[in-house]
Amino acid sequence: MIEANSKEINELVISKKELESLLSSHKVVENIQKLKQELVQFLNFDELTPEILHCLIDRIEIKANRTPKIFYRFSAPKIE
User: Phi/psi at 31 (nearest 5 deg)?
Assistant: First the structure.
């Protein structure tokens, strides 16, 4: 009985890891598709407008050493 439960738990853990991997790759594909849609809109621009800038950049942080850190809207989430 214990061996059967242990085997089932191991199979479920493996299945969980596979599903998490698929979900993660699906999110990356979605982010790439969103980026592609955004970039198509800006392919033929002559001037960087505030609208374009706001669509591409989420926020800008200035570190203590005065260097900027730019967070783009299309950045893929970090996978841990």
Answer: -65, -40
Pairing between β-strand 57-62 and β-strand 68-72 as defined by DSSP bridges: antiparallel
CA 37-42-46 angle, to 5 degrees, is 175
Q: The pTM is what?
A: 0.38
The token pair at 39 is 């970039």
Contact 79, 22 (CB under 8 A): no
pLDDT of residue 55: 80
Do residues 73 and 59 lie in contact, with contact meaning Cβ atoms separated by under 8 Å? no
Rounded Cα distance between 78 and 80, Å, is 6
pLDDT tens, position by position, 14-73: 888 887 877 777 777 787 788 787 777 767 777 888 888 888 888 999 999 999 999 888
d(CA 21, CA 42): 32
